[in-house]
Amino acid sequence: MSAEPSLPTPSPAPRFGVWLIGARGSVATTAIAGCAAVTAGLRPPTGMVTETPPFTSCGLPPLSSLVFGGHDTVDCPLPKRAEHLVAGGVLPHGLPSAVHAELVAADREIRPGGPLPGDTDGGPGRTHDELIDVFAADIRDFVRRQGLAGAVVVNVASTEPAPADGSLPPSSLYAAAALRADCPYVNFTPSTGLHHPALAPLAESSGLPYAGRDGKTGQTLLRSVLGPMFLQRALAVRAWSGTNLLGGGDGAALADPAAAAAKNAGKERVLADTLGAAPQGEVHIDDVPALGDWKTAWDHIAFDGFLGSRMVLQTIWQGCDSALAAPLVLDLARLVARARERGLSGPLPELGFYFKDPVGDGPASLAEQYAELRRFAERLRDGADERGAQR
């Protein structure tokens, strides 16, 4: 009796790396723990746009295929960091122990960041180019050891001031390392990253997709909805002022006026783009350490109605920044990994839905940005992207 032919062994599904800059911070820890929880069916994917139609059918890497690593300058292990987030009300009780193995696995893949004291160009430590080489080698080693189909580098570190002397700030060193390691790059912060003039030609010639900057999670998300409303209803906005109260690492970082100025630039751009001109008023950021990872954003909008009737709209947004940001980080990692798989390169303005200050040209209204994102999903599904074909 002849033996039945054996069926071919299916190839293992490709896995993709998510390399986080600021990998032991609140946003990164929440993203890693959240990905594990959703994959295990412990929690629903609330806040993840990529887990809704039409994105579920456009070939994105499954959450179960994501492998995490990154750079950080702090040494608090991820399981301990997750416990701190439970104490602060960010993560639910019991979650860190339920996903302990995944947190430990990701923590093993976190490498020392920089620059460290003494690391300056022309100083006694490592030069900028040496730091970029070290960071790029860490990323390449991660991809090789884990047998990954590729990796996306995502900056979720604390906001840094804009450079005043033309030198490369830390965010730009990491961005350059991503390019050197042949990885797409996403800047979820208002820091300089790939926006540095010295990196523009490298980004253009890299053949890699990239996106950013500054994730749109709360106050600016609301502004991108309300601004078009006033414009479309022909209501004249006279002034738009705001205040942010926040603690945690972001609050401490944004206590620096230069860092706060970098953050506020994106908030102001949204109003100028949606209203046609920037109204009077400013955004103030106050560090309130007692708030931890929670924030309150208040807006005061003065506008004119029919026959000059003066009116005011006030909004209050209270939320947990890490819980708002983490699902967007997972969305962006999957979308950009798929874009690379489809051969796209250069800036991805279609991802402006996620950012205060998106790269490339695109609409500022959230509704229009969402329509662009849906069209982008269609192109990812079909692989019919003219830009990718031309490059």
Attribute tags:
2 domains; 13 helices; 18% strand; Rossmann fold; 11 strands; alpha/beta; Dihydrodipicolinate Reductase, domain 2; 4-stranded mixed sheet
Secondary-structure class:
alpha/beta
Helicity, as a percent range: 25-40%
Unreliable spans: 384-391
Q: What is the CA-atom radius of gyration, in angstroms?
A: 22 Å
* Overall average pLDDT: 91
Count of all domains: 2
Major sheet: size, sense and barrel closure?
A: 7 strands, parallel
**What would you say the CATH architecture of the largest domain is?**
3-Layer(aba) Sandwich
SSE string, helix = H, strand = E?
Answer: EHEHHHEHEHEHEHEHHEEEHEHH
Overall, the morphology is globular
Number of strands: 11
Strand order of the largest sheet: 3-2-1-4-5-6-11
Task: Using the coordinates above, name the CATH class of the largest domain.
Answer: Alpha Beta
- Tell me the CATH topology of the largest domain: Rossmann fold
* Tally of DSSP helical segments: 13
N-C termini distance:
57 Å
What does this protein look like?
The structure is a single chain. The protein has 391 residues and is an alpha/beta fold. The chain folds into two domains: 16-215 and 324-390, NAD(P)-binding Rossmann-like Domain (Rossmann fold); 219-320, Dihydrodipicolinate Reductase, domain 2 (2-Layer Sandwich). It contains 13 helices and eleven strands. It has helices at residues 26-39, 78-87, 95-98, 100-108, 128-146, 170-180, 200-205, 219-232, 248-254, 257-275, 321-341, 366-382, 386-390; strands spanning 16-21, 66-72, 110-112, 150-155, 185-187, 209-212, 236-246, 283-287, 294-304, 310-320, 346-347. The chain has a seven-stranded parallel beta sheet, with helices on both faces. The relative contact order is 0.14.
